Amino acid sequence: AVVSTQSGHYGREFKSESTSKAEEITRLKDEINKLRDVLGILNKSPQKQQELLDSIKEDPDTDQKEDVKDTKLPPQTQKRQRQVAISGESVKQSAVDIDYTEYPKDADQKAIIKAGILKNDFMKNLEHAQIREIVACMKPDHRKAGEWIIKEGDPGQTLFALQEGQLEVIKNSKVLTVMGPGRVFGELAILYNCTRTASIRALTDCKLWALDRTLFQAIMMKTGQAKQKQHLDFLKSVKLLQDVPEA
């Protein structure tokens, strides 16, 4: 009886470990496919290459976000303004004009969205303030089984986080993987302003959270401006610098 109990325990442990490894392999395959898509996008467009290089070179401590106006600026300043956080697309609307409505979420729902962002290779390096605002502003989006959430080749406008249900990822009519709760997807389109690189369909009824690209970009700009103000306020508090005029 003791041997039987131990065998059952080890069997369950082995099954759990195998399931965990299978999920990790699936996640890594998904990330590899995304990286291939990004490389494909960049290879097709020199402009996208430059935008990505600009976003990578951006110093996170000096996220000088653009105050969008039609005034003439020196070329160096114009180039600097195009670099907005990690995104390859410049913001074309002032952050103050955006609706920052926050949608109610319980602690578990917030945790699932945040965990999905932190597991996403393209978004995990966002600042805490940016993640907090993204989580707060994502709105509920319910889909029925069989419904298309994303279609390959369509313009990308929305970032999604899966709360409940299962989704299948399809590319060139081939199912690549199945996603469960806690996954964030659709980020390539809002980061690099490109068309959808794969299709995603609901296998079951799903509860999702959604954030459109305009709001995402505005959050990137808003948080950068807040950080800049903090730095300026600190410098103003230093007595030796109080008589130094602002540039």
Describe what this molecule looks like in 3D.
With 247 residues, the chain is α+β, with helices and mostly antiparallel strands. 47% of the residues lie in helices and 16% in strands. It contains seven helices and eight strands. The N and C termini lie far apart (80 Å). 28% of the residues are buried. The model is unreliable at 52-91 (pLDDT under 50).
Topology:
Blueprint: H1 2-44, H2 46-57, H3 75-81, H4 107-119, H5 128-137, E1 139-143, E2 148-150, E3 158-164, E4 167-171, E5 174-179, E6 184-185, H6 187-192, E7 199-202, E8 206-212, H7 213-237
Antiparallel strand pairs: 1-8, 2-7, 3-6, 3-8, 4-5, 4-7
Helix pairs in contact: 1-2, 4-5, 5-7
Give the overall average pLDDT. 74
pLDDT < 50 runs, ≥5 residues: 52-91
Structural class: alpha+beta
Percentage of β-strand residues? 15-25%
**Largest sheet properties:** 4 strands, antiparallel
Main attributes?
globular, alpha+beta, 247 residues
How would you concisely characterize the structure shown here?
The chain has 247 residues and is α+β, with helices and mostly antiparallel strands. The chain is 47% helix and 16% strand. A hairpin with a 2-residue loop joins strand 4 (167-171) and strand 5 (174-179).
